[in-house]
Design a protein that fits this description.
The complex is a heterodimer of chains A (188) and B (668). Chain A is mainly beta. Helices cover 2% and strands 44% of the residues of chain A. Chain A has one helix and eleven strands. In chain A, 41% of the residues are buried. The mean pLDDT of chain A is 80. Chain B is built from 14 helices and 21 strands. In chain B, strands 1, 2, 3, 4, 5, 6, 7, 8, 9, 10, 11 and 12 form a twelve-stranded mixed sheet that branches. Chain B has a five-stranded parallel sheet with strand order 16-17-18-15-19, with helices on both faces. At the A-B interface, strand 4 of A face helix 7 and helix 8 of B.
Chain lengths: 188, 668
Amino acid sequence: MTKGQAISLQKNDGGSLTAVRMGLGWQAAPRRGLFGSRTREIDLDASAVLFADKQPVDVVFFRHLVSDDGSVRHTGDNLVGGVGQGGDDEAILVDLSRVPVHIDQIVFTVNSFTGQTFQEVQNAFCRLVDETNGQELARYTLAGGGAYTAQLMAKVHRTGAGWTMTALGNPANGRTFQDLMPAILPVL
Amino acid sequence: MTAELVRGQNHPLSQSRLEIRVSAGTPVVAVAALGDENGRIHGVEWVAHPGAPTQPGLEVSRQAAADHRLAVDLDAMTDAVHRVSVLLALPAPGGGPGPARFGAVAAPFVAVTGLDGGEIASYTITGLEAESAVVALELYRRQGAWKVRAVGQGYAGGLAELLTDQGLPEAVPLAGTIDEAVARGLARSVQAPPPRPADGDRSRQPAAPALGPDQGGTAPQGAPGPVPPSYGGQPAGGPGQTGPQPAYGGAGAADPSATTGGPINYSHPGRQNSAPPPPPPTAPPAQPGQPAQPVAGDATGWSMEERLYNQVWGMFEDLARTTAAYRSAVDFAESRMDKELEQTLSDPRSRIGGQGDAAREAARARYTHLVDQARAVLDRDLVQLVAEADVVEPALPPAFARWDNPAWHAYRVPMEIPMALRLGDLRLPEADRIRIPMLLRLPLERGLWIDSGRADSVDGSFTDSHDMRRLAMETAVAHAARLLAVYPAGEFTVHVIDPAGSGAQPLAPLTQTGVLAAPPAQGAAGVTDVLGRLTQRVDLVQMALRGGAPDALPPGFDTSQQLLIVNDFPHGFDDRAVNQLRYLADEGPAVGVHLMMVADREESAGYGPLLDPLWRSLLRLTPVPDDHLADPWVGHAWTYEPPLVPPDSQVLHQVLTQVAAARRSWNR
């Protein structure tokens, strides 16, 4: 997927997706110079903010792992990344059929909690997986990261009876999702 | 991916070298028979059985066992062979003790696996009754390719009838030969080690026949390790039970296969539950477009009790969350409507004509639409939870069950402490039909406080303070009776302090049946005496534990859990007694001494903040429905309902009479 591209989450056979997983994976880039093999740990955090009519209603992040309604679940904080070497280091599960009716957009964000910019991260990606069969629906690479510490990855929003995902890829700065609110509001 | 077959279903086979795993809860005979395109067995040389365990492309076990691995090589079959049937039979009753019909044993489970151990298809043979032999699976050729079909055809007349039906002329003599071979196999096999006292699980396993040394030799070489615990049928035991055990009996040493091979037994000899848990009940497949039918015990856990406990907690969380979704949607709808109405008001244009009315109407319509949607989602979830509660509630064991559950009428004094205790019911106003059992883990970690104050209940009915006290004491008695009943005989002791004797009537079920350690203590002297003894007890146990010598307690020391019911606090308490009570509240739970205060906090207001830590350390329950309990996820205020015995029910008396009888025989 590329920035700004949108895909509908309707299945090819007409049924709509019921459960999706937003997976995030990364590795710390090796440092150049002396002790080049030493990597510094980078803690990226995935968050999901639930909006109703452009009002943030609930948020799922490492300190609030399950939305109050239970439809959005964070699988837990990963402080160093690189575990799966290509697998997801952090994941947020969304049960689309149980998202409360007034929630019309869910924005997924990534923050660097330890403060490194995305230049120091390598092999970072974010992907959307159909949780019912493990099929990857979309993948978005964070490569070529610049001197910023956060990124709005994607948003999932209601269209008609179903849901659509739009890749965002907007850079931003902040330590946790709260710092990103000014950046998020324009993309709603 | 494993295809879980149902009767009659088939599945393609991509490999020709296969292994067929059989696990049954009891020793069975496994036979493989070849058939032509009409399914006929041409002669005895077309059957691999314990008397003739290998045939071209086939290999079966020499004896009856609870677990089998059959090797099949479809490439080795001659062109005349179009069908390979896997037959299971219960050993003839003469061959050893064992059931004579499949209806009496757990459903056998068969799986077709590749040589790498990967399961291709599996089938649980359910619905058998009087049958003693069954055609489990059929591998058959169809247009040059092999497929497997789940058959499950049983025969009450045993192997003889089964083989006759498959067209074998010598069916009856062959069945006799097989019985003989199985009996020989029994005689040859090493007896299982005697059950060890430390391991209760082992003694319940089916004995010897499963453990012959020959079995190690007949299992195909290069086969995967111990049979993984299967989820169909009752597994025979952990890996340690199914493998050969050459260390026992001495005879195994003569068998080379037993000395060279044989899986190492990794199971802990002293640990309970080394056997895999019995399979959870599986929900029947859902109709397309319909949610699955709920099943009691549909959760994780090592026992049915643990599964039900987890399922109840799962229902609790689901109800909390689905209600949170509904409430937040309604809140949002309300605030949006308010904002829109305000806008309409402040817009000067809307004051003329019908424009304003139309805008207000639209705002209200939007509100109603969203709330209706949210309500529909909530109702959908509630229907599912109601259905689940309807199957879970009757399945609960006594410790989790309401007093009106028939489980209490079938009550027997238990041998083990249950996981948890039902303290009452929880409900939310949005979901009046659903009562979530409030389960508290045992042993207790904190005391209980039955609040006899605050006479206004949530339903608005006013209860005067006299009634309230009686109700509170009745509730306390119901809780105490339940605790006494769910602990094994003699492992739970209840003391009562009733200084003014005002609780005599509600206490009658406890005093009349004789389950109390002593009659309720009365007067200031009684208070001092009981508190003094319990304080000393806490002190003794603490000293023993700190000294690292828990066995140094005096002989005859009662090690049971203790519960002290205090009525009418602070009546009859002097300062010293109050301090002792606080000591018990702080130090007691760690050494098994618990408080149950039946009190109105206002009455001890004279002590000021001194007693605040005491009240905080207790779990507050009410004798009437009251919405003071919060769930751990969203923090809704749940309405708690105490678990009262139905009026005119004798269940409490009956249960306590049994408890008292068990206590008397235990004390003897």
